Amino acid sequence: MGLALAEALLERGHPTTVWNRTPAKADGVVAGGARRAASIAEAVSASEISIICLKDYETMYGVLGPAAEALRGRTLINLNSGTPGEAAAAADWAAELGAAYLDGAIMVPPPLVGDPESVFLYSGSEDVFDEHRETLASMGAPRFLGADPGLAVLHNAALLGLMYATVNGFLHATALVGSAGVSAVEFADLAVNWFLPAVVVNPALVEQAADLEASDYPGELGTMEMNRNALEHIARTCVEQGVHADQARHMAAIAEQAIAAGHGGENYLAVYEVFKGDQAMPQRRIASRA
Which residues form the NADPH-dependent reductive aminase-like C-terminal domain (predicted)? Predict the structure, then answer.
């Protein structure tokens, strides 16, 4: 995701300095015109605005620690994942350092970064948002949600919770009919044309039905480990906000089962392997009733 953000900024003419904990990961964007910083402090010092995209807030503190002094008088745009409480704490932390701060959430996968219709959510200082709106628009369509710095990650958790529940419903239903030997491709066609297809089953899931049959779940754009991290953040956000958290916890537990079964480096559709379970016995039962 960090590479996608840097590439989008470069393509739209923004002088861009990059830094990564694994320097070689930046080779491509450096070849494309970015300047490579030798340290995080050097990267922060290179520009008025720093955009950071990491696993969570704890990781952000660890990475930015050596750049604390460099952040004074500058602006930090944080696109991490976490909870509203963590976002509020990060805003307070930045204020103590003398840095302007805006919290955000990326609502698209890396290939869609830079598309003018790709949704990016922001919350916190509206002045910071307005001042840097043009830069933010280089990465996607920026939407400001309000002065509470936790609103972006709250909406992120809500929307991702909806997405995971929808995907799980489709995968579980596909596994259920698969217990009778129905192919994923055959069922997907019915599922998307059954009722309100754009709401119940996204056609993009149908396009991936053949991958389910082939047990092919490439993780280049996002692994099960990454998705479990997001699901854990959703569950913690529910607890933090006083909302029923059992569904979110259950989805996180299913992702954990997939990881334990060896699918940690594959994409989220590998949950299908968990849902399939041992289908041999149900198929025999159905055959005996025919």
Answer: 148-276
The residue type found at 212 is L
Per-residue pLDDT of the chain (290 residues; tens, 9 = 90+): 999 999 999 999 999 999 999 999 999 999 999 999 999 999 999 999 999 999 999 999 999 999 999 999 999 999 999 999 999 999 999 999 999 999 999 999 999 999 999 999 999 999 999 999 999 999 999 999 999 999 999 999 999 999 999 899 989 999 999 989 999 999 988 887 776 545 556 677 778 889 999 999 999 888 999 999 999 999 999 999 998 999 999 999 999 999 999 999 999 999 999 999 865 444 444 443 33
Kindly list the domain boundaries of the chain, sorted by start residue.
2-148, 154-289
Measured CA to CA, the distance from residue 265 to residue 211 in angstroms comes to 16
The whole-angstrom separation of Cα 156 and Cα 123 is: 11
Q: Does domain 154-289 have CATH number 1.10.1040.10?
A: yes
Which CATH fold topology does 2-148 show? Answer: Rossmann fold (3.40.50)
| Ordered alpha helix ranges (H), the chain | 2-11, 27-31, 40-45, 57-64, 68-71, 84-97, 126-131, 133-137, 151-178, 184-194, 197-200, 203-207, 209-214, 224-241, 246-258, 271-276, 280-289
Instruction: List Cα–Cα distances, 105 to 56, 62, 140, 153, 256, in angstroms.
Output: 12, 20, 11, 6, 24
